Amino acid sequence: MSDNTNSFPPTSVRRPRYGVDAPTVPALLGTAGTACLLAAARRRPGRGPVAGAGALLLAHAGIYLHTTLRGKLRIWERELEQAGLRGDEKLLDMGCGRGAVLIEAARRLPKGRAVGVDLWSGEDQSDNRPEATLANAAAAGVADRVEVRTADMTELPFPDNSFDVVTSALALHNIPSFEGQYRAVDEALRVLRPGGRLLLADFWFAVRKYATHLGHGTHRGLGPGYWYGNPLLGIALLHTVKPDPAGGAAPRP
Q: For residue 3, what pLDDT is reported?
């Protein structure tokens, strides 16, 4: 079940603003780190370990904020550039949020279409709502080629073989069950045309599970620019091509 939310009027912004991923996380890290440093300043015994913990927490928060505000944007610019899009593809972004990947892809689709789906959870991203996504698309000058819908990734409201490319950035791990995550991966393949490409970024341990479930494709880490505080929370990219039962790429309508 889905609702087309393109009727929401975009608000006026000067440039796209993509918010902060899981904003309570860096807030808690920063608060805890500051509290540790203040505690260390008031005590002598054990000052070093407490101060070290505070510095570590603040560093974690800083790396996290760099990733969510700048690092992930630069990495997706690179990945989409390397994808070599022709410019006329139809692309689906699963869990699009405020449109960071959706809009970067739309910039490369002057004759194509970029469709985003989300359930608009405010806990996963600050100010996550369709109006914000459409406002960002307007600010980027790509509103004419962007569409957003309210839809569940485990039950996409599109026919089989609808898209040339499917992307997703740090969304599938939010589905509470492994079964649901695998169903979302299967849905991504279902709506891809034979020969179409899936580019799925998530925590490295989740991406390994998705790759094992699919049984094909490659995955690789995306580097420090996509660490949510430390390498244990680093992001990897799964890239796979939907097999064509007939052999070769399917003709595009």
A: 54
**Best CA proximity match to 240, nearest among 177, 186, 176:** 186
**Closest alpha carbon to 28 in 72, 69, 66, 65:** 65
Rounded CA-CA distance 32/46 in Å is 17
- Angle 82-149-184 from CA coordinates, rounded to 5°: 65
Q: Report whether 76 contacts 68 (CB < 8 A).
A: no
Distance separating alpha carbons of residues 142 and 16, to the nearest angstrom: 11
CA distance 224 to 151: 32
**Amino acid in position 126:** S
pLDDT given at position 123: 66
3-class SS letters over the chain? CCEECCCCCCCCCCCCCCCCECCHHHHHHHHHHHHHHHHHHCCCCCHHHHHHHHHHHHHHHHHHHHHHHHHHHHHHHHHHHHCCCCCCCEEEEECCCCCHHHHHHHHCCCCCEEEEEECCCCCCECCCCHHHHHHHHHHCCCHHHEEEEECCCCCCCCCCCCEEEEEEECCHHHCCCHHHHHHHHHHHHHHEEEEEEEEEEEEHHHHHHHHHHHCCCEEEECCHHHECCCHHHEEEEEEEECCCCCCCCCCCC
The residues of the chain scoring below 70 in pLDDT are 1-14, 122-123, 247-253
| Torsion sign across C-alpha atoms 10, 15, 16, 19 | negative
Torsion of CA 67, 69, 75, 79, to 10 degrees: 130
Per-residue model confidence (pLDDT) at position 220: 97
Would you state the pLDDT for residue 4?
A: 54
